[in-house]
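Anyone able to model this chain together with flavin mononucleotide?
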Amino acid sequence: MTTSAKEYRVLALSGSLRAGSYNTALLHAADKLNPGQMSMQIYSSLGDLPLYNQDLDQEPPPAAVHDLHRTILRADALLIATPEHNASVPAALKNAIDWMSRLPDGSGLPGKPVAVIGASPGALGTVRAQLALRQILASVGADVLTKPEVMVFGAHERFDSDGMLTDGFTRHLLTGLLIELTRRIERGRSD
Ligand SMILES: Cc1cc2nc3c(=O)[nH]c(=O)nc-3n(C[C@H](O)[C@H](O)[C@H](O)COP(=O)(O)O)c2cc1C
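re: yes, here you go
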């Protein structure tokens, strides 16, 4: 990933591992919208992390854990798209946060601006998963944005067959959130 001095490095994490994921498609839509000076990296290796096991929690950590950690440390902010699994956060995402929270030199998450979004074909648009994720992120000290909320319900009607986000209102909300994320990064730099 190449960045210029004025670019904000945003690490985009999808809680879905599946190829046709609406949540990953939402991150690609965010990358295309990019209303500011963001350089977005969509991380596609969450599935490489082993299940958290305290017996594996040693120095050095597993390679995939180390890779994600380095990537988070380099990022100015995170954009996380979460599916909803049984009214909560999918295991892959929780697993990644659990790993990060255990690293001896810090997870890189305290104070990090984080925007949470999510998409579901269902009627609630990940509202419960996002609530759970916000609580988890608060517990590790991340600086989680509260507005605008991007909860994409009826996701199967908002993307075309190529995975492109076609819904104007969702694009509008997503743009607003990215602008807010940029502001939050700028504020952190000027503090
Ligand atoms: C194990 C499992 C549990 C699910 N639970 C919910 C749920 O609680 N609420 C919901 O809206 N959708 C639920 N779904 C449907 C997902 O929203 C749907 O599969 C969605 O497409 C997953 O996101 P993705 O497209 O990014 O992979 C569930 C799916 C799975 C596989």
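The helical segments are 22-33, 63-74, 91-101, 127-139, 168-190.
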